[in-house]
User: What shape does this take?
Amino acid sequence: MRINVFISASGYCSRRAAERLVALGQVKINGLIAEKNSLVEENDIVQVNDEVIQLTSEKDYIILNKPVGITCTGLRTVEGNIIDFVNYPKRLFPIGRLDKDSEGLIILTNDGPIAHKILHSEHGHEKEYIVTVDHPIDEEFINGMSNGVLVGNVVTKRCKVSMIDEYTFRIILTQGLNRQIRKMAKSFGFKVVKLQRIRIMNIQLENLEIGKWRNLTEKELIHLKDQLKEEESNENFN
Assistant: This one.
């Protein structure tokens, strides 16, 4: 098993974060500093910053209604990090990010492979947000946001946008550019004053209080895994 896959499968962090740890020389296999393509065999001892990492068969999946001010990082050295905030009895890591000044749904797990599938599938996984801006919106704004916006050197994908009231709209994205919604709104002269994520794929925030977390239900998890499995089958078929 490749070293980044092993670390991710252990639940220590995501696969991408594991690649960064390897690149920084913070990972050892049997006492030797690991390289990008190093392989881990059955009886090898893997350490991250001198902590021994082992595979675990028991996986946990929770969702958090993240408050503003909490940073979506597994680095415990960062003040206000999401791991210390949740204070879960096992090591978990967040799937993806939600800006420090945004709130709402984020999934945390120790299941590296499923996190990788959610983050890196070629299929655009829907993420739904409720957004409030600083002055009244109109149909021109809604249509402009829906049809793609030039952000830096990239035109955003077409997306679903609908008005809730004169200051608030709903938006469903299938991509995840850095601070995408804020930058899209800014291009039309609007400032986002509140941004809440309420859904990732089939997982809904619903009535979960800000700052609280809960375990995924069995029904939610089965639906999520079935969707990812179907996508994987379609990719292999194509």
Observations:
- The longest strand covers residues 192-200.
- The CA atoms of residues 63 and 166 lie 30 Å apart.
- The mean pLDDT is 91.
- The chain has seven helices and 15 strands.
